[in-house]
Amino acid sequence: MHLNLTLPFLLTQALLPLLRKWDKPSVLFIASGAGRRGRAGWGSYGVSKFGVEGLAQTWAEELRPEGIRVNAVNLGGTRTRMRALAYPAEDP
Questions:
Q1: Is the whole-model pTM more than 0.70?
Q2: CA–CA gap between residue 65 and residue 79 (Å, rounded)
Q3: Which residues are catalytic?
Q4: Sign of the CA dihedral running 11, 57, 53, 24
Q5: What is the pLDDT along the chain (92 residues), one digit of tens a residue?
Q6: ∠ Cα 51 29 85 (to 5°)
Q7: For 71-92, b where at least 16 C-beta lie within 10 A, e where not — what string?
Q8: For residues 60 and 68, what is the distance between their CA atoms, to the nearest angstrom?
C-alpha cells in the first residue's frame, strides 16, 4: 500500500508547485489489471492499484483546469518475480 499508493500520492503532492510552473505538465501513474477488478489472492496489491486508478481519475479532474494532465497506464504483463509466483505455468 505504501509503495504503490501512498508514495505516489505524496510525491505528486510535493511536486505540484513545480508542475504548476511547467508548460504542459503531466503526471503518469503505473496501473495494473489487478486494479480493475477484485481478484482472490491479490490482496493489498490489488487494492493499492484500485487506489492508483482512483487517485489518477480524481487528480485528472482536479488539475485539468490548471492544464496539468494526469493519466494511469497499464503496462500489461511484465516479467517480474511477483508475476512468476502468480502465474507459475506461464511461459516468460
A1: yes
A2: 38
A3: 45
A4: negative
A5: 999 999 999 999 999 999 999 999 999 999 988 778 877 877 888 899 999 999 999 999 999 999 999 999 998 777 778 777 777 887 77
A6: 70
A7: ebeeeeeeeeeeeeeeeeeeee
A8: 8
Task: Map grid coordinates 494532465 to a residue.
Answer: 69
Domain boundaries, given as residue ranges, for the chain: 2-14+24-86
Q: Angle, nearest 10°, between helix axes 7-19 and 43-63? A: 20
Nearest to 26 by CA among 53, 58, 55, 66: 66
pLDDT the model gives residue 89: 81
* 69 within 8 A of 25, measured Cβ to Cβ: yes
